[in-house]
Amino acid sequence: MPPIENISDTARWIATYRAMESERPDAIFRDPYARKLGGARGEEIVATLPKAHDSSWALVVRTKVLDEIIMERVAHGVDLVVNLAAGLDTRPWRLDLPATLRWVDVDLPGILQYKTETLAGETPRVRYEAIHTDLTDVAARDALFAKLGATASNALVITEGLLVYLETEQVQSLARALHAVPSFRWWTCDLANHRLLEFLNKQWGADLARGNAPMKFAVDEAESFFAALGWHVVELRSALIEAHRLKREMRMGWLTRFMVRISPIKQAEEVRRMSTFALMERIEER
Q: Which residues pair with 192 in a beta bridge?
């Protein structure tokens, strides 16, 4: 069996990383559902995908940083969270969120049904809803956004682990569709630049392509790219810097930080931007 058979396998893969972190005595977050959700398939992926175990730090850091961004936005009045390509994310169950918050997971039927069945008997902390939608169906996507937007005044959209699997034109289309909804005020996501995308494709490209889940999208200048689509980058956190803060650096991370410090400014910035976590605010039309 290939390491990745389909796009939904990537959700089991990431759930297993969350389980590995949660089982550490010094865990930076706890996800009591991750091991069960990742299951034997997730464990197999981590065991067989080349260097998958060594790469767990990046996804653990991503989880923690987006946790922080989400909690901060909710504390400042977000009334709806829309999690696109939600996969096996468990934040509605594990984060200390207000019971009044409405949270909508959007993804393909198979993976959301699997999550619902696996978490049967567990109670989310929020007003939770799972909606089955293929986000590549533009008409269905836009109709769903309009429907959800009409129910909120200050929404946060999450696209964790999604954009890298899209074509550039699909990311542009998604950004414009989100901006078209006035109540979709905030958007948080993770981004890779072209240097990282090239590295990831050398490491996992063949395995992901066989599973029909190739990594495609990268952006080097997130601020200008998203500004043209109606989004202002409020925060852009470097995974390398956040990993050091959270004490979850990759092997030889200290050497990478040293090389960044002594590198020319342009090269150092390119390395810092290899993997980033963005919080964006909707640019109001005038």
A: 275
